[in-house]
Amino acid sequence: MAGEDLGQDFDDFDGTSDAPPDSPQYSPKVVKYKTEWKGFTDREITGNRFGGTVSDEGHAGERLNDARREARQNNNAWLSPESSPTFWESKNAHMKGILAGTTKVGTMPDQGTLDLAAPALKVLGDSVTLLGVEGGAWRFKYHGLIKNKRGMEFFAEKLLRDEGVNVTGVRFETGGRVRDMGE
């Protein structure tokens, strides 16, 4: 085996073989299939939820009305301008009078308390806006990063307590934001 030229049978290998087709050495010529691009097929697009095809122009208004009817059944989008306020009032009726979880402005503290808390509010700066104080619970609208919200709540509470303000808790409202942009 040593010194033997093992590649002597493969000197000019082109993928074909002169061996008969029934022998184990037979290697058929490799055919490369390549199809020509003929463009997209001209067929109508089906599968529209509201019936018909996309190219069916005669029933576009009916399909739109069907979509609106279905959306209104599920209390989704596309409510008429008259029914939208009544819908949201009925949806939020259980929250009437509750300020926690909203960015609605509540009762502001008296001027003496604001003067006492002024150094702490100056430290917090533009990252918060005072929404109100209810029984010692201070509510702020928070404009900073959500990932820092919990730590900032504790920091604000400590700042207010250090100034001698009556604080039972601090809550930062974000107006429905649950994560930072880019997360």
From TrEMBL:
It comes from the Eukaryota. Residues 1-15 have a biased composition (Acidic residues). Residues 1-30 are annotated as: Disordered. This is Uncharacterized protein. It comes from Triparma columacea.
